[in-house]
Write a structure and sequence with these properties.
Length: about 100
């Protein structure tokens, strides 16, 4: 579950280069606006057991269209062997915590 602390930590860790930020929204959302430095991997791909090319031990913060999508993506990543995955909710949560968008 997303908490303000998790989102603030995500902004710091991603900016510091110690974590990957994963955007699991569809192409329309990604093409409109996205978190700066995010990797795009739609939730539909995760549901199809296709995982992004990220080392399994890399800390991953994930956001989606809403918190429910973000939580689902987190669970799917963990099921695929990722060991440090945190759901941060939606893009608006990222922005409210000071995260940059492009």
């Amino acid at each position: 579950m997303s908490t303000p602390h998790n989102v603030l930590r995500a902004v710091h860790d991603v900016a510091s280069g110690v974590a990957t930020l994963l955007d699991v929204r569809g192409d329309d959302g990604w093409n409109d606006i996205r978190a700066e430095g995010a990797v795009h991997w739609p939730l539909a791909c995760l549901r199809a057991d296709t995982i992004p090319e990220i080392a399994l031990e890399t800390p991953v913060y994930v956001y989606g269209a809403d918190e429910e999508a973000s939580e689902e993506a987190k669970d799917l990543l963990i099921a695929q062997g990722f060991v440090d995955v945190v759901s941060i909710g939606g893009l608006s949560d990222w922005q409210e915590a000071g995260g940059e968008v492009e």
